[in-house]
Amino acid sequence: MLKSKTFKIIVSSILCIFPIFYSNLCRAQQHREHVLWYAQPAKNWVEALPLGNGKLGAMIYGKIEEEVLQLNESSLWSGGPVPRSVNPGALEYLPQIRNALFNKEDYGLANELMKKMQGLYSQSYLPMGDMIIKQDFKGQKPSVYRRQLSLDSAVATTSFTINGVKYERKTFISAKDQVLVIKLSASKKGALNFSVLANSQLKIKKNTSVDRGLVINGKAPANVLPVYYNPKNVEPIQYDDTLGCKGMRFQFRIKVVSKDGSIQAENDSINLEGGTEATIYLSAATSFNGYGKCPDSEGVDENELVEKRLKAALNKTYGDLLSRHSIEYKHYFDRVSLRLSNRAITDKNTLPSDLRLKDYSSGEADPDLEATYFQFGRYLLISSSREGSPPANLQGIWNNMMRPPWSSNYTININTQMNYWPAEITNLSEMHVPLFDFIKDLSITGKSMAKEFYGTRGWAANHNSDIWAITNPVGDFGAGDPLWANWPMGGNWLCLHLFEHYQFSKDKKFLKAVYPIMKSAATFSLDWLVQNKDGYLVTAPSTSPENAFFDSNKKAQAVSIASTMDMSIIRDLFNNVIESSQILNIDRNFRDTLLVKLKKLYPMQIGSKGQLLEWYKDLEETDVRHRHASHLFGLFPGREITHDQPELFKAAAKSLSLRGDDGTGWSRGWKINWWARLQDGDHAYLLLRKLLNYVDANEKSNGGTYANFFDAHPPFQIDGNFAGTAGIAEMLLQSHNKAIELLPALPSAWKDGEVTGLKARGNFEVSIRWENGQMTQAGIKSIIGGLCVIKSHQPIYLKGSQLESKKSGTGYILSFDSKAEKLYDILPNIK
């Protein structure tokens, strides 16, 4: 009988003969862990390292004598449920606005009237508190120091040596057990001494005992105004709640366990002396019980939740908790691997990540850094968006400010959607679920809003939202700028995520469940559209998010008719609802209505410079380099502008060229995806390098990446990270145009490489290997079977068959009927 080790070697050798899906097994010993590491503690929040499990988040500084873990709980927001009626007089201004636009072409009047159609501001996502670990080393400096975050294991480690003793803190947040765990150790017996304390910027009460640990109870404010809105004589943070329905409760609890150390609780701290190892456990919860329930009187019992989770965790060993965390996390993270290489590049893994990013920003090549950045985006999505949690907000789940930038809310004119661009293509479909749940909530609150503000059926949502599913145009009843406040296309756009999930999964049960939401959004659009003098259906009033044009008096205006983005989103929604109706074989009458209306929608226009127009006619832009380029929605994330429409395709490229390559972090992230869809890999790569430009924590630059790899808008917004990861995936794989396109926008900088586990529409798992810029092997795993259409820039064939690709347009097409759970090897056809 063969010995176990010999048998494993033989099996590994056999597996390497099979398709590319097994290549990770063949490279297991050569696998390089994706790690962010630093040679000094963090001084600023955007240098700290993020951990999260969708509900509980922590930013770890890695300090020596006074370690700080800044804590968040993803349901901890100010405020409470939105009133059923917000602005009952809003609708009376709609006819006046349309008269100003159609009959007077008075954009300024329309703009002022639009302010009458505003409601409440959204509420704010809040920081929960800080856990502080004090260790007294008499100010001595460590001889060795390292802090790191392993993306492969979602474990953060801080280690340092003082007086010959190595101290280590290993931290993870388990989604499986809903607990944060820190293991502290010293290499010398009895050398571990520390105190644990907790603070919060919110109103709290502390309780300390050896049995129960350190218990923090608190309450959130009833109202927090956006940081950019500061009316006179109004407190921006208000705790008083006259209606008794705002301001949720929260609790977090800390427990310390050690086998050999002495533990005492006093003066609001837990103290350990003379230990060698110790484990700190933290659990947290809020009283949030859904968007429509008073978080106090109708809230869940946060004390019971925390106690139950903590008790369950304490009944397991540290090893069990770590193992359960690792298995659960790696189940998602390990689905996709990416290796980018250039044989001429020196290995830079020995450099700390901040110095490495600085070198990269100076122009040095570092493909492994780019691959790590790609995986960091996937790590952040796994860490900030889990089933049962709210969706990732503007900062994911990490925030240290009482009045964070833009309230750290859900900005649904681009940013929330951008957070989920990597979900399907990078094989993290489950992380998409919180957004689906949120869309369902919005479809309910958005129904009464659509009726009150717009006099329509169906549902709609405007520019901002929060955990209470607010859908009205924000602005405190007239203080907001219609440039961004009044934009009812948010719900329509969010519906694209529902259909995209179906496209990738082909889950008809899911499609049937969400079809009524999509149909209701389409119903709103049917009622919202009006006919212009030429017989076209248009939106009026209409804005193009956060951009403006000059009127005939050279005055900046934002409100007009039929912005390209409005019409593109509506076309996209109508097409998706029509296709869904056909797939489900239901609702033929409604489908026929949409087909008729679809033909009457105001079409895209090409301007005097050959560009795709942003507004309904060739209006002069106030900022030709504006960070938003919303009129390119049909290129990405939509599927309306492809190679099959050469005039529009060329016009979109012209518009993007005129916009330029500068912009905020998220703006550069969107541009990567646009250039990838235009199949210009080198230009997409140029934007990736700009996105990865190092930004100092105190620097006021335009866009880039902080030392901890967070996106610098600036300030921090997580959407740039997610857009960057999605953009890299789009450079390697596309499937929006009825075919799986292999390496559609491969930049010349990535000479060699391999990606495994990406997902294509139709529920195909795709892996690709390439050398010298040419595909050498691709593997297609058909999850559910069905027609598989593959497009490549080079001739290809299906291994083990007589099937060869045929020249078609800009590439080569190979088609075959696939079987469920079968692997297919695609090879270059070299004759």
Summarize the structure.
The chain has about 850 residues and is of the alpha+beta class. About 55% of the residues are buried.
Kindly list the characteristics that best describe this protein:
831 residues, alpha+beta, 9-stranded antiparallel β-sheet, 7-stranded antiparallel β-sheet, 19 helices, 29% helix
Structure description:
With 831 residues, the protein is of the alpha+beta class. The strands form 9 sheets. It has a 9-stranded antiparallel sheet with strand order 1-6-7-8-9-18-15-12-11. Strands 2-3-4-5-10-17-16 form a 7-stranded antiparallel sheet. The protein has a 6-stranded antiparallel sheet with strand order 19-30-31-32-37-34, covered by helices on one side. It is globular.
Which term fits the overall shape? globular
How helix-rich are the residues, as a percent range?
Answer: 25-40%
The proportion of strand residues reads: 15-25%
How far is it from the N-terminal to the C-terminal residue, by CA? 46 Å
Oligomer: single chain
> Radius of gyration in whole Å, from Cα?
27 Å
For the secondary structure, the number of strands is 37
State the low-pLDDT regions, or none: 1-30
Strand order, sheet with most strands: 1-6-7-8-9-18-15-12-11
Global mean pLDDT = 94
Query: Tell me about the biggest sheet?
Result: 9 strands, antiparallel
